[in-house]
Amino acid sequence: MSLLLGQIAAEFGYADRSGTGLFSDAIVSGMDVYGLIGNPVGHSLSPPMHEAAYEELGIEARYVTFEPEADAIGEAIDGAQTLGVDGLNVTIPFKQSVLDHVAVDERAERIGAVNTIDFSADPPTGHNTDAAGVVRSFEHHAVDLDGATAVIVGAGGAGRAIAFGLADAGATVRIANRTTDRAESLAAAVPGATAHGLDSLDTLLSDADILANATSVGMEEDETPVPSAALHDELVVLDAVYSPIKTRLLREAEAAGAKTIDGAWMLLFQGVAAFERWTGTSAPVAVMNQALRDRL
Ligand code: NAP
């Protein structure tokens, strides 16, 4: 494939992650181009994670970030296709709105969100690798999901991906959310799931195997959505929040004797799944993990 770099930069408002004009220097005709579309994307950890994989495997590719205006997603997708972009990750605020502009696989359709577009498919097709990423995070830590009971706190974008991912892997899902209506509408779509308020967490967790935090609580402040007294040593606790890497929930879970999985694992494995879909090659997981953790 070949690209007119200035054309892309002008069309999408390319965000130069290095501030050094790397884009025009580094991409040459013939390279594959992958990237992330969102707004904002300036602090994304995806470029170093994917580029470490290209370097490790000798793949001639670049991973760049694009920041179109919120109402320009359709034009951005058409433009990316026209210019020969090979694959895009999608983040806030486009994960839902992009569904109107690409074909969508069955799981992304159920989740109602796309975070990965494969432009080599005809038509370009959207997938949700957040769901695959959370399942692979548990598998990587030798956690058996089939037959497990999982409590998911949160029913936003991450909560939806985690709920469908875990249910598809054979877990029974209990969804607890601050806004109970939102938990109810998600539970109605996930086979076997039940909906609850946050005030039920004590009871919900007492016989559970897995707890996943899919709220943003713990990111801005040193807070947790789960009462520490509800944590116990038979739980595996995953936090989707990855900044800070060790949230209060994870610290309290460790203190209760639970096994913990930080949010960087989910971020890593959604990237691994996107990489493997785009390139058809097994991802160098350890290298991508290191590149990610070096920046956290
Ligand atoms: P979202 O769609 O905006 O959903 C936010 C969720 O957090 C909702 O369930 C919301 O409850 C809940 N919430 C917010 N503030 C709360 C509070 N003070 N108390 C209780 N619940 C609260 O966001 P999202 O995209 O799902 O992201 C959620 C978190 O997951 C973020 O920290 C994000 O960075 C992280 N994430 C991580 C990955 C990864 O790869 N590691 C991937 C995706 C997201 P209501 O419904 O009641 O508002």
Features:
39% helix, globular, alpha/beta, six-stranded parallel beta sheet, Rossmann fold
Secondary-structure map:
Layout: H1 5-12, E1 14-15, H2 22-26, E2 32-37, H3 46-57, E3 61-66, H4 73-83, E4 87-90, E5 103-104, H5 106-111, E6 116-118, E7 125-127, H6 129-140, E8 149-153, H7 157-168, E9 172-176, H8 180-189, E10 194-196, H9 201-206, E11 210-213, E12 236-239, H10 248-255, E13 259-261, H11 263-279, H12 285-293
Parallel strand pairs: 2-3, 2-4, 5-7, 8-9, 8-11, 9-10, 11-12, 12-13
Antiparallel strand pairs: 1-3, 4-6, 6-7
The structure holds NADP nicotinamide-adenine-dinucleotide phosphate.
CATH architecture annotation name of the largest domain: 3-Layer(aba) Sandwich
Using only C-alpha atoms, the radius of gyration works out to: 19 Å
Please provide the ordered H/E string of secondary-structure elements.
HEHEHEHEEHEEHEHEHEHEEHEHH
Q: Note the beta-strand portion.
A: 15-25%
What is the helical fraction, as a range of percent? 25-40%
And the CATH topology of the largest domain? Rossmann fold
Dominant shape = globular
Strands side by side in the biggest sheet: 1-3-2-4-6-7-5
Oligomer: single chain
The CATH superfamily of the largest domain bears the name Leucine Dehydrogenase, chain A, domain 1
Bound molecules: NADP nicotinamide-adenine-dinucleotide phosphate
Question: Overview of this structure, please?
Answer:
This protein has twelve helices and 13 strands. With 296 residues, the protein is α/β, with parallel strands linked by helices. The protein has two domains: 2-127 and 266-293, Rossmann fold; 131-261, NAD(P)-binding Rossmann-like Domain (Rossmann fold, 3-Layer(aba) Sandwich). Strand 9 (172-176), helix 8 (180-189) and strand 10 form a beta-alpha-beta unit. Helix 3 (46-57) packs antiparallel against helix 12 (285-293) and helix 6 (129-140) packs across helix 11. The two termini are 33 Å apart. NADP nicotinamide-adenine-dinucleotide phosphate is lined by residues 130, 154-159, 177-179, 182, 214-217, 219, 225, 240-242, 263, 266-267, 270.
